[in-house]
């Protein structure tokens, strides 16, 4: 008799579902690739390419080809050793290659024999790609033969592996061609620019590795080749290309031990923001970790000692802070180690304490040597740091003045803020609205219980070109800081924010786009954890409206308009373009943009901090030709644009 439980007629062993093979991946894909949206879709490519990069890091691969095929599939080819094709000892009758493609946590990265260092540790990469594809075609060139194995319908093997001929010109390597499953993903169309950006970073991190990209899709044909003999030094030059460098040289040093190694490249620029980007075994550690801690500690100590030794910092003067020294620093820290300890499945933070010691020791020794060999550049670094120190003191005075003004105002909130009544931060939203008329409409359209309105006048200060003391004197920025209520820059504490969602609400035109970019730059530079933790959103007011019978239909952009016309070919072309938020009645604004049950919000995330840093510098910096080139290159993908 089945065991009886409360609220259920029966609950016994037969009610327990056991997911076999790759089934868990298809049932909960988000657990393995993060999401089923664009980020998860592209994650499939990263998993396959990462395997090839691991071969390169092991010294067995010199070239990787990534092709977006005409039929919507993706092909990744490497010239590594090729996945082993002999029978697996634990699975009689099955090749090692089949096991790698069909069994979770199977790979050459656990025992220590296959790879000294690698990005993948969980062993779920290529098998997850197989599980989430309608078709995966595996080709392996090894031992002089060309082997093929086909999978369909989420990783179901289609017969045993076959030798279909000789390997061309005694080549070795692996070819994976896969088609994403449309029943799993929200969309299955790869974005070329996203792929190119990631491949370029991989080429920077693997000196001398050639990575080729080709888009064969109709109307989008393109080719790119990435190969950097300078490795991460070239990466620093690339990031500083949109800035004015303080000196021409790029410093590089590395230390290699038996089980771990570190390579650092650095160059200062005349800007006001530090750009330190770290990687462990080729994985971007966007939350930092022990390697960054070791570098930051050492660079502060080394520069202060150098400044005192050269009498550039007087005996009675205080030491320069780390923030002073790192102002304008662009730095890449790349470490490799046999047993990396990443915090969380996202691998966003490196936890190995031994790596902190290695990086600190390497920086103390090698950066000191570099400064002694380059006294002119060393003097420029110290002079900039002293200038930053003086600006920091001025900024502290400005912050103190801001705090005093807020305390005199009572609640410390800007007078133009129309606050909400709820004090539960988790449900509260702050709409930042450009213009008084739009602010008035938003005020009437909001839900006063949990939606607050902060009107700002015109375009805020471009923080990319200003130090903190100047930024804090700007009236509109003062209002933003006070309304959000969590401080600014190093004082910013995301746990103290007054609103869970900060929503940018600007017109759907060029001026509106400029305002959004200025605001996003401010948040990325001055309140970065607000962006990192997903609290920033962009409202998407419609650009067009039209009538279908007596019902008004709103269309977000030109793509939505084209889709509407395709679905309604007989519709008269009578679209009343909505030029500005201020032109909308409050009920229109509520229905299209502010009502949580009907609106569309774009959440701003930063997956690749180095790329976001570069985009901010290009869009908001002084290099006009580079900005024009960026806009022209990315114009066709504007519907995907986020920072």
Please render the helix and strand layout as text.
Elements: H1 23-27, H2 30-33, H3 38-57, E1 63-68, E2 74-78, E3 87-88, E4 91-95, H4 96-102, H5 125-131, E5 133-142, E6 145-152, E7 156-157, E8 162-166, E9 173-180, H6 192-205, E10 210-215, E11 222-226, H7 232-240, E12 251-256, E13 260-268, E14 275-280, E15 283-284, H8 290-309, H9 322-326, E16 329-337, H10 353-373, H11 375-408, E17 429-434, H12 436-445, E18 451-456, H13 468-471, H14 475-484, E19 501-505, H15 510-526, H16 528-532, E20 536-539, E21 544-548, E22 551-555, H17 558-567, H18 586-594, E23 601-603, H19 609-620, H20 624-634
Parallel strand pairs: 1-10, 14-16, 17-18, 17-19, 19-20
Antiparallel strand pairs: 1-2, 2-9, 3-4, 5-6, 5-9, 6-7, 6-8, 10-11, 12-13, 13-16, 14-15, 20-23, 21-22
Helix pairs in contact: 3-5, 3-6, 8-10, 8-11, 12-18, 15-19
